[in-house]
Design goal:
alpha/beta, TIM Barrel, 12% strand
Length: 285
């Protein structure tokens, strides 16, 4: 089970779903999981709406503030809770909020690279996406892709959502050795966003978010600056305390809802268990 990847899980989906349902029954029902979406193609809007609607039957969608209060032990949650996040700052996220999140009364955190947000030209926006963000097959609607603007982010804030930092250029921080360059990506990016939005940023998400993208140095720089630091390693955050890496579940809209049920059951968390222990051991107290 620990060596299963996304593709192999899809192949054996029905079998693993059955195993996960048993696992889910015996697991602690106090849960706090964080979903992470990226660009959402227009053709997937209905699928996303239906997915969130189905999840709302068994999970409680919480606000960023509720998440903060739980981690800080100010007001501890109970039961099964979900926080929604979006990475990369695509314009599609703004439309998702308007057409889906607002309708379902879900508040989210939007993690954005500061250099991407400042771009005003569609051509430059697509160049940034192609060079800095997309490291896989381009989506079918690539020609329509562009960034959210500062104005868009201010609207999201007014609607009760939170903005988080996602580095300056969407760099893989695990490959950067220079402390100066790391601080530029992690801290300078935050200062730029705070100046543009006139708010204080508490949340930071590693770009890529896998084990190799989070070095000891980058992790501690981030934790010194931000109250909440996020990965893309799967896991339950219910018993997280301050200065602990936050786990997130990447959602694949091209897959069935059964796959998401498998992830949320916690059965795949075992794959990331040792990685999370190693990362948390690198945190300077």
């Amino acid at each position: 089970m620990i060596n299963l990847n996304h593709n192999s899980i899809k192949i054996f989906e029905k079998v693993i779903l059955f195993i996960s349902s048993i696992f889910n029954y015996f697991m602690d029902q106090n849960r706090l999981r964080v979903l992470v979406y990226h660009h959402v193609e227009k053709r997937d809007f209905k699928k996303l709406y239906n997915q969130l609607k189905v999840l709302s039957k068994n999970w409680n969608f919480i606000t960023p503030m509720q998440f903060e209060n739980h981690i800080n032990k100010k007001k501890v949650l109970k039961g099964r809770n979900l926080l929604v996040t979006f990475d990369d700052g695509f314009k599609s996220n703004f439309y998702v909020e308007k057409k889906i999140l607002n309708r379902l009364q879900i508040k989210a955190i939007f993690f954005v690279p500061s250099d991407f947000i400042k771009i005003s030209s569609k051509q430059k926006s697509q160049h940034f996406i192609n060079k800095n963000i997309l490291d896989h097959i381009k989506p079918k609607d690539f020609k329509q892709l562009r960034n959210m603007s500062v104005k868009d982010l201010k609207i999201l804030i007014k609607r009760g959502h939170s903005i988080g930092c996602h580095t300056k250029t969407h760099a893989n921080l695990g490959l950067i050795k220079s402390t100066f360059k790391l601080k530029r990506e992690i801290i300078e990016s935050s200062k730029n966003l705070e100046k543009l939005l006139k708010i204080n940023l508490k949340h930071f998400a590693f770009s890529y978010g896998n084990y190799k993208s989070m070095s000891k140095r980058s992790l501690n720089i981030a934790l010194k600056k931000y109250d909440f630091v996020y990965s893309c390693l799967r896991g339950n955050n219910f018993y997280n305390g301050k200065n602990k890496l936050i786990k997130r579940d990447t959602v694949y809209l091209d897959s069935s809802n059964d796959l998401l049920k498998i992830f949320l059951s916690g059965v795949i968390d075992l794959k990331y268990f040792n990685q999370i222990i190693k990362i948390n051991s690198n945190i300077i107290k």
